[in-house]
Design goal:
This protein is an alpha+beta fold and 268 residues long. The chain has helices spanning 20-23, 70-81, 89-103, 194-208, 223-231; strands at residues 60-64, 113-120, 128-137, 140-146, 150-158, 177-185, 213-219, 235-236, 256-262. Helix 2 packs across helix 3 (89-103).
Length: 268
């Protein structure tokens, strides 16, 4: 089963606008584990069917996202980062994220991008596969599963280096550093170590890519995320005075903490 990247979403505002199609801006959603609850209303209900069948002591499996995870990844992302959006904009957000994952967006040659998911109560033995290897959707095998899996958390890992400081006077793209973003855990599964498991899996994957370090930007207003990363061995990197380092696009009042961890170092 092929894995898929987490696509790039439409720029968005942090609140509804009378003409959202024309004035949407990208929110702050980089490398933060959001601590507020998902929206009370919304059109997306598919992944909430698990509420009818609670799982006792659910097993958490962190793996690469598959095509059958697309809708739940979109739901997890949007309910975490846009909890106050209501219909129809919340539905548009989920469709945008779904399209981005199914068809993907171009990644520079030699770079990688992947989405990791933390799944509750999922195993191969519990899955019923339907589809054919001869059918393709967006470049992926059109093989879907009906299983007990439930996406509880997500994380994106890439080596595109868009948000890493450029190297040298010619501002060359950084290599050998993997970048973590879009970390989100559903409200009912928070404070269970899922974010920590996602980050650990990302670090292990980055090593297989030949990376020497991982980096991220964390919202200074999110103490829970800062505690997670510092506890995992990430160190804050001070931006030199006068330097123009890239950072995630967000509201002007949002401040980020650029953090990095050497993969061959011990966790403090």
């Amino acid at each position: 089963m092929r894995s898929l990247p987490l696509g790039i979403s439409l720029p968005l505002t942090s609140s509804l606008d009378p003409n959202p199609a024309l004035t949407l801006k990208r929110p702050n959603h980089h490398s933060s584990i959001f601590l507020h609850a998902p929206p009370k209303s919304g059109i997306c209900r598919a992944s909430q069917m698990v509420e009818l069948f609670p799982t006792l002591s659910p097993e958490i499996v962190v793996r690469e996202a598959r095509i059958e995870d697309c809708w739940e990844v979109a739901e997890t992302h949007c309910s975490s980062f846009f909890p106050d959006y209501s219909f129809p904009l919340d539905f548009v957000l989920r469709l945008d994220r779904l399209v981005g994952m199914l068809f993907g967006f171009s990644v520079p040659s030699g770079c990688k991008r992947i989405c990791l998911v933390a799944v509750v109560g999922s195993s191969i033995d519990q899955s019923l596969y339907i589809g054919s290897e001869d059918i393709k959707i967006g470049g992926f095998d059109a093989k879907f599963t009906l299983n007990k899996g439930y996406v509880a958390g997500i994380l994106t890992l890439d080596t595109v280096a868009d948000y890493l400081p450029r190297k040298g006077p010619v501002r060359r793209r950084r290599t050998g550093i993997a970048y973590i973003s879009n970390v989100a855990v559903r409200e009912r599964y928070r404070r269970k170590g899922i974010g920590k498991q996602l980050v650990a899996k990302a670090e292990a994957l980055a090593k297989t890519w030949g990376c020497r370090a991982v980096a991220l930007h964390c919202d200074l207003r999110n103490p829970g995320a800062i505690k997670l990363y510092r506890g995992g061995g990430f160190k804050s990197i001070r931006v030199p005075e006068g330097a123009n380092w890239p950072h995630p696009r967000a509201s002007p009042d949002v401040q980020f903490n650029f953090m990095m961890k050497l993969l061959n170092s011990t966790t403090n």
